[in-house]
Amino acid sequence: MANEILSARGLTKRYGHHLAVDHADLTITQGQIYGLVGRNGAGKTTIIRMVTAQTVPTEGELSLFGETGERALSRARSRTGAMVETPSFYPYLTARQNLEYYRLQRGIPGKRVVDEVLEEVDLASTGKKTFKNFSLGMKQRLGLALALMNRPDLLLLDEPINGLDPEGIVEFRNLLLRLNRERQTTILISSHILSELGNLATCYGFIDNGRMLEQITASALEEKCRACIEARVDNASQAALVLEQQLGIRDYEVLPGNVLRIYSSLDAPQRVTQALVEGGVALQGIESRGANLEDYFLAMIGGVRHA
Amino acid sequence: MLNYIKAELWKVSRRPVFYILLAVLAASTALFTAMCSSGGFSYLAEAVSTTMVTGFLAAPLLVQLVDGGGAEALKNELSFGLGRGTVYWGKLSAALILGAGVCLMLVGGSLLYGWLLLPRGGEEAGKALNLVGFCLIGALPVWCGLFAMCHTLALLVRSTAAWVAGYYLTFFIGQPILVFLAMLLFNVYEATEAFSLITAILMPYSLLMPSVLEDWLTSQYQLWCWGVGLGWLAAAAGVGMLLFTRRDVR
Fold first, then answer.
1. Would you give per-residue pLDDT tens digits along chain A (307 residues)?
2. ipTM of the predicted structure?
């Protein structure tokens, strides 16, 4: 596809007998903010480390900006910015010196870019303080500054808000949203802080035990997690008639197994119950449902675990 | 690659420890020069030609100036698309350029002092300068091999103390033992050419020792220096690249 930025097919990483990533498929298209969701040790970081060449995949294919093959991938990686795990820099250099070193190394023209990017992450005033004396939050900011320095088309961020204070988290979120909106930067972000991912992502990939369980857009997830009354009945067609004719409800869906999901009258489940019973429908169960990202993910890995 | 080397040298120039090391080396050279100044320029130049072995001692320190503190920062380079080959050869090249620069400064400074301030006979001074040049040409490949070995160790062994200690212990204790074992295995004895060759291969710095240089200023000496030095360079770089390209960088 023309707008596929990152694509992985059967990506696998094995450490001895341990499968860290098990034939993962992943597709990220231009402009997406892709949230990679999983528990600690699920394989999120390993996937990002394979994309960023920090670890060599055991098998599988990787494509970046449509490029495949090691040489072409290396070229494509120069269009990315990455922050993987704890940011690491030369401890004896200041923030500005560290960035200047990478600017020289990467052949990025113009010294101003270092100051601009330091201002962008609010580190312009760190002066002669060397990296070894930075707080975790400052290290995270410097890591982000490096990731942004080459104006990347794809940002790969692994647990980027660890160590940031609440104000920093809000600034960070706004920065990512701005980059995505103004520069159309595609972003892959992994986190186990799901509430934060929920504020950003336009697409999710759920991973557990090294396996990609599902990829879903934020809108589809929202649809799936929509609040509803779920009723299990003996005759779904009759129940639908009752809902429409007696209660005037049109916003519902019939699922396999005589299950109805009703998306209106949420504040009056007893009225729905009463109408169904009076309409001669045998009600086997009724409950209010609705989920957020966290519930959805927990239900998913719970389901897999018990399968 | 040029950008990479430029950045590495820029980084070293920002390390205070580089200037401390430079000051110590400069002071040692000044002391050495002062001690060897009594016999005039020729005597000083001949004395300088016997100091090439210090490159063996300084190699870990100069390599560490480039590689030090950067093991965890390698991920920044790989994630930007720099190949592992570029990283390996870029850092090694920077260390070698640094070593050459320091050598030029110290040897050049010492000779310049002698040339300008000490008495010198025309022909004798020319001969002495030729001797220094001959020794430098022989020392260059041996230094390259030793630097490559240090660089490989620095990239692959996380603990700086461990690899630096390992380097010195191997050369001071391990390699003489290897030479002894090789003598037993191949039934060769001292004062034979085979013994000299085994010693040169297993203890490359021995080629730079004053005792060897004293009566062996021949083209064969150069051949051995280049063969052994480039051999060590190839072996160290081969092992380094093989392991570094497969290693996870964290």
1. 558 889 999 999 998 888 889 898 999 999 899 999 888 888 889 999 999 988 889 999 999 998 888 888 888 898 999 998 888 899 889 999 999 999 999 888 888 999 998 988 888 888 888 988 888 888 888 998 999 998 899 999 998 887 778 887 888 888 888 888 888 889 999 887 777 777 888 888 888 888 888 888 877 777 777 778 888 888 888 888 888 888 888 888 888 888 888 877 777 778 888 888 888 888 888 877 766 777 777 777 764 443 2
2. 0.79
Rounded to the nearest angstrom, the minimum Cα separation between B227 and chain A is 33
The answer to whether B81 contacts A78, with C-beta atoms less than 8 Å apart, is: yes
Domain count, chain B: 1
The number of angstroms, rounded, from the C-alpha of B63 to the middle of its chain's C-alpha atoms is 10
- Distance from B80 to chain A by nearest Cα, in Å? 5
| Parent domain of B23 | 2-246
On the 0-12 / 13-18 / 19+ scale of CB atoms within 10 A, B163 is: buried
Among partner residues B10, B72, B78, which is closest to A101 by beta-carbon distance? B10
- What pTM was estimated for this model as a whole? 0.79
List the single best residue of B4, B21, B75 to mutate versus A (max A Cβ within 10 A): B75
A-B C-beta contacts closer than 8 Å: 82
Report the DSSP pairing between strands A33-37 and A203-208: parallel
SS3 content of chain A, % helix, strand, coil (to 5): 40, 30, 35
Pairing between strand A4-15 and A59-64?
antiparallel
Nearest CA distance, A296 vs chain B (angstrom): 32
